[in-house]
Design goal:
The protein is of the alpha+beta class. The chain is built from 16 helices and 15 strands. The protein has an eight-stranded mixed β-sheet. It has a three-stranded antiparallel β-sheet with strand order 4-3-14, with no helix packed on it. It has a two-stranded antiparallel ribbon with strand order 2-15. Strand 5 and strand 6 form a beta hairpin. Helix 6 crosses helix 7. The chain is elongated. It starts with a helix and ends with a helix. It binds adenosine-5'-diphosphate, zinc ion and magnesium ion (MG).
């Protein structure tokens, strides 16, 4: 933000994020318990390791490390040869060992960045670090909120789930940028195949926010380390979506500005985002790093990824793919953006370009298929690829009209799982051509002398009227372009 905003306000908004994402692996981070817990009873996905029983030893999950390396590569981060795990000590019922295994001064990813676009401007957000850690269990407060509950139950199914904590530099200058960043991050993680946005609680955000006096903001928008350190900040917890982040931070900006205007100091504290009420509430004074007495996790050896990390591939990322789709297939920015919204859509489209004209395939996937799916709230998975290819062939070979292909065949495919040829046959959609059309044109001319006269008088609407008569006579199965052409030929004869 922005020289402009700082001119009209006394303070610049500064935000930095700590984002927890759950990595999609089959088993937990340090044991063999399955991560597929959604449909199961509490405490059924546990073992001595994730329950923290005495003598149980953790073993690091290779797939989680591989996923972390992919994230590091996608964020253009440094991945050191050797990284290490630490114990973060605190007491809480959801943490059976009384410490969380995490990474401290030797995280697996350091100094990365992610480019976002906000209102047409490119911004680079620097990533300080991204590390692996285990999730604690979860608490269920019976009878409502924590302060009103009669009792609380603990579920250790979540204990030991693999998380990655991604810590950004305080580079955000407003809630809108945070929202754009989180959306972009989710997109990249899904491309990597390491993240599922649909999984409950797979994204959790802690947002640090402060107001920095406008005179500390340089012309290029940068703020010195001293000014950042001097600013009192709050940490807003319990944010679980990009929309939620934007709302919570917008609220917090207003709250802090009001306090400053009244001459009150911002208290350095942790606040809780109450999604339902749309407010942040004070939770506790902010704990400091020294409170956690980090020390090395002696049960796990240092983790060496050199020699291996080079062999872990990552797919082409969304920005690069968008750019290539525009160049290689001549797509508009809007089409390229729709067709790369997920890796799955992009792969689906790109496979079609092997068989069809890229422009035809783009129009059918971006405009028609995605629109119809969206309307039905159906996933792309639900589309029978072979049937869709057949539909495009019917259009490509001019066997049915585009209108019938979309409004009848595609819809029947999605609604009833129908086979395209069966629908064409059943609904009599085979294109009427040749003699039948010529006959219908002659009839239309004979039966509508007024329209013919208007046509010759140069009235635009007359031809359309006649096309409409022919289309009606052929039950919509004639090709409007062909009808148009034959009509003109006859009328101009
Ligand atoms: P801590 O000592 O609280 O761990 P860090 O320097 O590690 O502080 O930063 C934690 C988070 O706070 C990071 O996401 C960082 O971007 C953010 N942060 C740092 N300074 C500020 C600030 N002045 N305003 C808002 N966020 C900040
Ligand atoms: Zn376990
Ligand atoms: Mg820190």
């Amino acid at each position: 933000m922005t020289a402009q905003a700082t001119q009209t306000r006394d303070h610049a908004v500064v935000i930095g994020l700590e984002v927890h994402v759950q990595l999609e692996t089959a088993t937990k981070l340090f044991c063999g318990c399955s991560t597929d817990t959604a449909d199961d009873a509490p405490n059924t996905h546990t073992c001595p390791v994730c329950l923290g029983l005495p003598g149980a030893l953790p073993v690091v999950n290779e797939a989680a490390v591989e996923a972390a390396v992919k994230v590091g590569k996608a964020l253009d981060a440094d991945i050191p040869e050797e990284t290490r795990f630490h114990r973060k000590n605190y007491y809480y019922p959801d943490l059976p060992k009384n410490f969380q295994i995490t990474q401290y001064d030797e995280p697996i990813c350091q100094d990365g960045s992610l480019e976002i676009r906000v209102e047409g401007n490119r911004r680079t957000i620097d990533i300080e670090r991204a590390h692996l850690e285990e999730d604690p269990g979860s608490l269920k407060h019976e009878g409502g909120a924590i302060d009103r509950a009669e009792y609380t139950m603990v579920d250790y199914n979540r204990a030991g789930m693999p998380l990655m904590e991604i810590v950004t530099e305080p580079d955000f200058r407003g809630p809108g940028e945070v929202r754009a960043f989180l959306a972009k991050l989710e997109e990249v993680l899904e491309y990597l195949g390491v993240f599922d946005a649909e999984r409950d609680g797979s994204l959790r955000v802690d947002a640090n926010i402060s107001l920095v006096p406008a005179e500390e903001v340089g012309e290029d928008g940068s703020i010195g380390a001293d000014a950042l350190a001097a600013a009192n900040r709050t940490e807003v917890k319990n944010i679980s979506s990009h929309k939620g982040a934007e709302k919570a931070l917008a609220y917090e900006v207003t709250r802090q500005r009001n306090a400053v205007q009244r001459g009150r100091e911002i208290e350095q504290e942790t606040r809780h985002w109450d999604e339902g009420r749309g407010v942040t509430v004070s939770m506790r004074s902010k704990e400091e790093e020294k409170d956690y007495r980090y020390f090395r996790e002696a049960d796990l050896p240092p983790l060496r990824v050199s020699g291996w990390k080079e062999e872990i591939p990552i797919p082409e990322l969304p920005d690069a793919r968008r750019k290539r789709f525009r160049e290689e297939y001549g797509l508009s920015a809007e089409e390229a953006s729709k067709l790369t919204s997920t890796k799955q859509v992009a792969d689906f489209y790109e496979d079609l370009t092997a068989e069809f004209d890229p422009a035809l395939a783009a129009a059918w996937v971006a405009d028609r298929l995605l629109g119809e799916l969206n309307y039905r709230d159906m996933p792309l998975d639900a589309v029978d690829r072979e049937a869709f290819v057949r539909l495009l062939s019917l259009v490509d070979e001019d066997e049915i009209t585009v209108k019938n292909a979309e409004e009848v065949v595609l819809r029947a495919m999605l609604d009833e799982g129908a086979d395209p040829d069966t629908v064409v046959e059943r609904e009599g959609l085979g294109k009427t051509g040749g003699d039948e059309v010529v006959e219908a044109v002659s009839e239309a001319i004979d039966e509508n002398p007024d329209a013919v006269e208007d046509y010759h008088a140069g009235e635009d609407g007359a031809l359309n009227f006649l096309v409409g008569q022919v289309m009606a006579a052929t039950g919509g199965s004639a090709d409007p372009g062909e009808v148009n052409q034959i009509l003109r030929e006859k009328l101009d004869d």
